[in-house]
Amino acid sequence: MISARPFGTTAEGAPVTCFRLENRSGAWAEVLDYGAILRAVAVPDRTGVLRDVCLGFDTAQEYQEKHQGYLGALVGRCANRIRGARFTLDGREYVLPANEPPKQLHGGVKGFDQYVWDHSIQGDTVVFSRTSPDGEEGYPGALAVRASYTLTEDNALHLVLEGESDADTVVNLTSHAYWNLNGHGAGGVGSHTLSVDAIAFTELGEDNCPNGTLVSVVGTPFDLRTARPLEAGWDEEHPQIRQGRGYDHNWALRGTGLRRAAVLAAPESGITMTLSTTQPGLQVYTGNFLPEMAGKDGARYAPRCGVALEAQGFPDAVNQPGFPSVVLRAGERYHQEILFAFGRD
């Protein structure tokens, strides 16, 4: 079942709509046409009580004013960081707005998360769409994109990302939802355990962009092949942990196609989340730079109160020939999937 309700207006006066997807067991998720944002996900804990496990805000105005945290956002045209806010494609250099000087982050000054998207309901799926014009935030080509959300009967949220461009361009889309499986307002996530199916991560340079080197996770805080608490690694005396002030790194996922990439679990609530994706990388960000602020339902958010698991192309891939390409050629189809499957231990 899908229902819709008004969710206020943007500062420019554009109306925003909130869509609720609900399955027969009572689990539900809410998505906005503003930024194709994932606002809430309520799933049962080990006792059967529903907990909303996705950080968010109560008003469209808050999403506009506090967008630096990208809570729940669909980020693009190119997620993550681009070194020097520039890249060369087919012999031409493109200079981008540097919204995290000297880098570009998550699509620039006004990325995909700051637009009201067109929407439609197709069966049990909410589809958001927009066309990013040629030159928007410095990127070439008019890019038509779609983000489709479906909540399944077995409590999995399926996100399908699609796009086509009329010129060669760069595309890397992902969900920037923050998760706290004890409930979005339950405080720190240090006791959450995380496993990631990867044997290497992309090492960061001093500018927090990958330096092009894939480093083995073995013997490091990045070895999450076996689940471990986030707090066991995020303050270790490791140069890469110090660089990111915790986890803010991309793991090079094993395998191809839609496959299991990570499992997040909260011992307190008993809620688990298995993330599957077609993407080559997974950025794990433990909210190290989240400010203290008011969230939805009277909650208080602070650093490390949520963890973002961003399935995506590698950061700065457009400048790193050894990384999987994020170039979309004219006439080709961009298609990626992310599946958040919730369960109970």
Largest sheet: 9 strands, antiparallel
Low-confidence stretches: none
Structural class: mainly beta
| Strands, count | 30
Mean pLDDT: 97
Q: Determine the strand fraction and express it as a percent band.
A: 35-45%
By CATH, the architecture is named: Distorted Sandwich
Helical residue percent?
under 10%
Principal-axis shape: globular
Number of helical regions: 2
Strand order of the largest sheet: 11-12-13-14-30-24-23-18-21
Rounded radius of gyration (Å): 19 Å
**Distance, first to last CA:** 27 Å
Tally of separate domains: 1
Helices and strands in order, then pairings?
Blueprint: E1 2-9, E2 15-22, E3 28-32, E4 38-44, E5 50-52, H1 60-65, E6 73-75, E7 81-82, E8 86-89, E9 92-95, E10 104-105, E11 118-122, E12 125-132, E13 143-151, E14 156-165, E15 169-170, E16 174-176, E17 178-179, E18 193-196, E19 198-204, E20 210-216, E21 228-229, H2 239-244, E22 248-253, E23 259-265, E24 271-277, E25 281-285, E26 293-294, E27 300-301, E28 307-312, E29 327-328, E30 334-344
Antiparallel strand pairs: 1-2, 2-3, 3-4, 4-5, 6-16, 7-10, 8-9, 11-12, 12-13, 13-14, 14-30, 15-29, 17-28, 18-21, 18-23, 19-20, 19-22, 22-25, 23-24, 24-30, 25-28, 26-27
